[in-house]
């Protein structure tokens, strides 16, 4: 008897809607809260509005910020958006941008790495001591420097994951310790200049001067992006799932196309396609693929969201934690080589000062959450663009560095506020 | 309805578990048949959670035997249990709030195509799984954080079914839910039974137990205190077994005298 009664309530339950909000249940057959997206562009717009209301802002604030920065500085000094200036920005973002990619990995895990600046310094110092003053080959020294970064990351990861020391403290110790190691390595030299013709010099000083290089890269990016979306859309349609409407694919391709070709045009107006930008983009694309398309990336998000749930799902949480810190260390050392290239050599103070803060700020400004489990690799690029644009613009206006610090600090605060508020909105908009 | 003469899919024979000086389980027997919902009830500290954890492989047993389809088996770690076909849904839902429903359903067992996560196949299977269980959620592509408590619970249960288990353990699945949400979860439990799965349902709520369970196994102070068919047993009898209302001064004196007599 109780059996049939149960069936009755159950039937009503499924008919009325997905949960207990009784007020909304009177609407009849179609539950208005079911988020069935309409096909076509209109459906896309509704979905977009829903996401904004739900606090899923994504990259919107930072893109708006970039536009505002562009307009403000251009109106104050019309050389800001000139080809030369943009070309410089594209080179200067590479080193710290690559470090910021590593920070995004760590932030996705819900942790922080305070040592990246020192590790960048150690990377550059190892390369300089082995490759320039030492007898090792240039390429070997670069590889060893990057490997040393990964090894340092593994040490941090070990103390964090296996010993259980908070990552904040481990990497704070690393911040001090590795910077001491860097100074010790540099010894009496103080600075070791980059020899001309070395790999490290090329990192930020080599340009593909042929105009075909920049246009070719832009073209390849747009075509690949469009094909990937079309292929995905076709598979989804074949599987009977909701797919991106054609109009959306075309719109996205067009937006990317415009940005890519305008950038390529501007770079060609100046010195051509910088090698630094190519490497940075390669790092971004690879990291984005790893994070979004592989099991490993999915596991990083899972550990960042709920480590206990991840462990119960059979994920090796310790392995994920250690490897993520290795990635951060590796990318920090690699980024350090770019900074060495840019500043003409390795020094005792390379990676010190505001490098660490700029890198973390870039990841957060770009939209990666400090609370773990939410973010995109591309936020490293967007955030770095914001920071570098502000710096470049203030330099053009002849502002002192103290003003730059204050403005960058304010932007970082704004980014974190947006992150916290959107997180709260998401919570309240959730649980219907 | 249930063929009790058939061998149980899972059976515990005289299982004991000790934590240091604390004897958590003593000589516990339990049988689960395919298509049977066994409610495991008992007061706080009766050993329900410990018993479930021994089956799930979190705490290996000290004494006794576990039989899987009539054959003796060993469960030392969670992986062993999953390998046999036992899925456990814990009280504190093991879901990642930041991941969407599809990602949560397949967490730890993602479908891949040439080494890359196959989102299309996963979404399709997730959709099918939720449809066969008549689970309705706003979208399989929204983060679990935006679901209601009941929806999260059914997603957690659906997640346990991805590996095609034969026994599902539900630890207090309705503990924190409202009336309507509880109804949803109980519906789902019935659908699991219809699919021929053995279900162990831990619950404090007698109404839930009466509604969906076939058998009630009562634990008291780490021991069996009766196994009752739900249909023919009154509410009061079950409560009495849980609280030990039969355990009064007279029975205690009897027990002491028989023990002394030995």
TrEMBL record, chain A:
It is found in: Cell membrane. The chain crosses the membrane at residues 57-77, 89-109, 116-136, 142-160, 167-186, 206-228, 249-267, 273-291, 320-340, 352-371, 378-397, 403-421. This is Xylose transport system permease protein XylH. Pfam families: BPD_transp_2 (PF02653). Keywords: Cell inner membrane, Cell membrane, Membrane, Sugar transport, Transmembrane, Transmembrane helix, Transport. It comes from Streptomyces zingiberis. The keyword Transmembrane helix applies. It is a multi-pass membrane protein. InterPro entries: ABC_transp_permease. Part of the binding-protein-dependent transport system for D-xylose. Probably responsible for the translocation of the substrate across the membrane.
